[in-house]
Amino acid sequence: MQEQTYSVEELLLHHAKQVEAVLTTHLSGDPDYQPLIDAQIYSLTGKGKRIRPFLVIESCLFCGGTTEAALPFAKAVEMIHTYSLIHDDLPCMDNDTLRRGRPTNHVVFGESTALLAGDSLLTDAFGVIAGNELVSPEFRVMAAKILSSCAGTEGMASGQAIDLAGTGKQLSLEQIAKLHDRKTGALIRASVLLGQCAAQSDDQEISEALTTYANSIGRAFQILDDLLDATATSSQLGKTAGKDDAQQKSGWLSRRTLEQAAEDAKELTVRAQESIQDYPGSDHLVSFAGWLLERKQ
Ligand code: GRG
User: How far apart are the C-alpha atoms of 281 and 277, rounded to whole Å?
Assistant: First the structure.
């Protein structure tokens, strides 16, 4: 496929198909723990946008690597994203019943299986990273370190903790931005940096450009998410709409009007595009940042 002639939607679909073909290949059936396998397959095969795998693959191509080398890392990031959605929906967290247009994992499989499905996805993701034979051991270790720091205590998990602790409280815009950077931005940052690892590039300048790009689209993405939460319906989103208000969450709109938030997202998108647009081969990542701003889901 000559990718440069395709729209962002077509590229997303193309990469989604590639990653979906390998997402469940590490899971083999055993009647003793079949529900644990079924629960993972259920959530992995839900209708996700596959934004993070897209970023891993496109960042790898941008850095001179191949889709084949990027695929295991793309799969690992999607596994961690899927675990976070399963756990986020649990009764002890957001207690949600709708995700990716279907009942949430614990509604279908029960709470303990959902918890274990998330645990398995998180743990197995690191096995998938370690098993990427198209990348040298040095870059596999680098990828594992990046993913662990972006998903763990310094990243997504603490973002979730700050979010839960802030429920019902008025956070400042700076506090909300910090929460977004961890809860949403960290895995987006991991995606682009894992793409660079898959290309076996340790170019510091490129790494910094990709980090600025990811931090900016991560913020814009979450602002858009808050805007959609306030303005779209549950059936449009495939998840429960209006949650921030109902759960007294301190989202971007607790401090900014709809118009200001849209303007903030636009500025962040421009910043993201400017951080990489002068590098050759950045056109897909540049267009993707613009596409994110227009998304309706
Ligand atoms: C449980 C450690 C832990 C973390 C949970 C992911 C998450 C953190 C919470 C989910 C709720 C939420 C609003 C997270 C912000 C990130 C986000 C918008 C996730 C949804 O990502 P999409 O839109 O989902 O890419 P799809 O379904 O398309 O993959």
Answer: 9
112 vs 294, more confident: 112
For atom 17 of ligand 1, the residue with the nearest CA is 184
pLDDT digits (tens, 9 = 90+) for 17-53: 999 999 999 998 677 899 999 999 999 999 999 999 9
CA 95 to ligand 1 centroid distance, Å = 14
| 297 has a pLDDT exceeding 50 | yes
Q: Are 230 and 253 in contact (CB under 8 A)?
A: yes
Confidence check: pLDDT of 64 > 90: yes
- Asked if residue 170 has pLDDT above 70, the reply is yes
Spatial distance between the Cα atoms of 277 and 192, rounded to a whole number of angstroms = 15
Q: Which atom of ligand 1 is nearest to the CA of 51?
A: 25
Q: Which atom of ligand 1 is nearest to the CA of 78?
A: 29
The closest-lying atom of ligand 1 relative to the alpha carbon of residue 46 is 27
- Nearest-CA residue for atom 5 of ligand 1: 84
Torsion angle, alpha carbons of 99, 103, 106, 110, to 10: -170
Which residue has a Cα nearest atom 20 of ligand 1?
A: 85
Q: Is 150 in the pocket of ligand 1 (CB under 6 A)?
A: no
pTM equals 0.94
% residues pLDDT > 90 (the chain): 83
